[in-house]
Design goal:
Number of strands: 14
Low-confidence stretches: 1-34
Strand content: 35-45%
Structural class: alpha+beta
Shape: globular
Oligomer: single chain
Strand order of the largest sheet: 2-1-10-11-12-13-6-4
Largest sheet: 8 strands, mixed
Order of helices and strands: EEHEEEHEHEEEEEEEHEH
Mean pLDDT: 80
């Protein structure tokens, strides 16, 4: 079992209608016992999980996380049916940091100078994308959500030499569902070779 220390979760919500726009920053301090409460079992995603999972990384991503909305299912049942993430991709960290996420209209890039992700637009039309920078004790990354149906989202979390990215959709863009996604990503813990020994 991986031992967790106290960590700060940094959630920066950025709403953009042009190539550059910024919003207020919310900083939340969480105790490890509040992330993995005794009555909740951390979920595990690997290349052997019963879901769409691809890997181009030199080492498989093994990541535990918490979703307090569903806790009564086995891990396989949760990953297959109840997880909001429907496809996963394990890549090398350098690939995620260098190429980010690009569509016809928008691009997510990592700024080494300010150590955060930025959203830029290729199009003059109004953006329906929101970008959230996610930071926990070790992994860091981003979550993007769409404010129009089918309310797709995409994320990528990086730790050391690995990055775990994924896609899915939520029923509606309710604040509680966005909060749920951010909490899931903030609870990510990458298992290392040392932690499995």
């Amino acid at each position: 079992m991986i031992k967790l220390n106290n960590f700060k979760t940094l959630l920066i919500a950025i709403t953009t209608q042009s190539s550059v726009a910024f919003a207020a920053t919310e900083i939340t301090t969480c105790e490890a016992k509040n992330i993995y409460p005794p009555n909740y079992t951390p979920r595990l995603i690997t290349k052997g999980s019963p879901t769409e999972h691809t890997s181009s990384a030199s080492q498989d991503c093994r990541v535990t996380f918490l979703d307090t909305k569903h806790n009564n299912q086995t891990n396989d049942e949760y990953i297959k049916t109840y997880s909001p993430v429907k496809s996963w991709s394990c890549v090398n960290a350098g690939e995620a940091l260098q190429y980010g996420y690009d569509t016809d209209d928008e691009k997510i890039t990592y700024s080494y100078k300010v150590k955060s992700w930025k959203l830029s637009s290729h199009s003059a039309k109004k953006s329906n994308t929101k970008l959230y920078n996610i930071k926990s004790k070790n992994p860091y990354g981003y979550l993007i959500t769409k404010s129009t149906a089918p309310y797709n989202f995409h994320f990528c979390m990086v730790q050391n030499y690995q990055a775990l990215c994924g896609d899915g959709n939520i029923p509606v863009t309710e604040a509680q569902e966005i909060t749920r996604l951010k909490k899931i990503l903030s609870s990510f813990q990458f298992e290392t070779v040392e932690s499995n020994n």
